[in-house]
Design brief:
Elements lengths: L7 H9 L3 H5 L3 H17 L8 E4 L5 H8 L4 E5 L2 H13 L5 E4 L16 E6 L13 E6 L10 H11 E13 H10 L3 H10 L1 E3 L10 E5 L1 H10 L2 E9 L14 H14 L11 E8 L1
Helix pairs in contact: 7-8
The protein binds S-adenosylmethionine.
The site of S-adenosylmethionine (SAM) has 18 residues, from helix 1 and helix 4.
């Protein structure tokens, strides 16, 4: 693409796109997290199956495709073309139409003639510049796997997401939990690093290739509430994923009976404020008035 190099976050996700589903398949912990995630999506998903949905940071399409299979009209958005290609392959396999729209190749401006939202539009765009997408288009916006955390300007990205919501529309986003980042600095004995991290919430995604390293923004529950308040969104709630130590003890999930009990316990506790610090990820929902 002339005139524009790929950002580290694109390079990283382009590289892992082909492997992405396989990273999680068959992992007891991630399968449990995905089950909990889907149940939380169902809690917030509008009942009207004609509601246009947008999957932001869609990756290989895991959640948007589940919405498609549930009968919703869905568009997809990601900064990584390779991830969007994976999603396109899967839409094709389902016999669903799709259209690629690239907002990164040229200076961004409002897209014209894109028609109704939810027709399988595959937006290649960065969350912090969504000006090509028409305001008030979506009744449900989902972003799983923390795309807001890997956005250069998360405050601006959230403002853009709020703009895309229709009145009454709901946004459900997972983000990295700042309270979990604390351990890393203690383990490294890095007290000044800890102080800086707690002030800024910024950390580096440490991949082997320095060209793929990008800044991660980690959030506190209070910050997420404030972000929604600033945008005039009604706070619908927050969960931790996971508040029980399911990752450390994932072998317990191999037994169907124990798995059932643990997931039930996790769901009964995942909104408890006192337990949120245990969770690697926070997931919050808000509604536009
Ligand atoms: C961890 S993956 C999650 C993919 C998918 N949502 C899932 O849960 O399986 C994060 C995705 O967010 C995308 N992403 C990261 N930063 C982004 C940005 N600034 N704008 C749009 N997408 C972004 C990445 O390319 C990647 O596909």
């Amino acid at each position: 693409m002339p005139g524009r190099g790929r950002s580290p976050v694109e390079r990283y996700h382009d590289r892992v796109a082909g492997l992405y589903d396989g990273i999680y398949d068959g992992d007891l912990y991630w399968e449990a997290v995905f089950a909990l995630t889907w149940r939380n999506i169902l809690r917030h998903l509008p009942k009207d199956q004609a509601t246009p949905c947008l999957d932001v940071g869609c990756g290989a399409g895991r959640w948007g495709l589940r919405l498609v299979r549930s009968g919703y009209p869905v568009d997809f958005l990601d900064i990584s073309q390779k991830m969007l290609d994976r999603t396109a392959d899967k839409l094709g396999a389902l016999g669903k139409p799709f259209v690629h729209l690239d907002c990164l190749g040229a200076p961004s401006r409002p897209a014209v003639g894109v028609g109704r939202p939810g027709r399988g539009l595959l937006w290649r765009a960065s969350l912090d510049d969504l000006c090509a997408l028409p305001a008030g288009s979506y009744g449900f916006i989902v972003g799983q796997g923390d795309p807001l955390s890997s956005t250069e300007k998360p405050g601006r990205a959230f403002k853009e997401i709020a703009r895309l919501l229709r009145p009454g529309g709901v946004v459900l986003l997972s983000v990295d939990n700042r309270l979990q980042g604390i351990h890393h600095y203690f383990q490294a004995g890095d007290v000044s690093g800890l102080e800086k991290f707690l002030r800024t919430g910024r950390a580096l995604w440490l991949t082997d290739n320095p060209d793929e390293r990008y800044v991660l923004h980690m959030f506190t529950p209070g910050q997420l509430r404030a972000m929604c308040r600033e945008r005039g969104l009604e706070w619908l709630g927050l969960i931790g994923k996971t508040v029980l130590p399911l990752r450390r003890f994932k072998e317990l999930l191999a037994d169907p009976e124990k798995r059932g009990t643990l997931l039930r316990l996790e769901e009964s506790l995942h909104g408890e404020e006192a337990l949120l610090a245990n969770a690697a990820h926070l997931e919050f929902a808000a509604r536009k008035g």
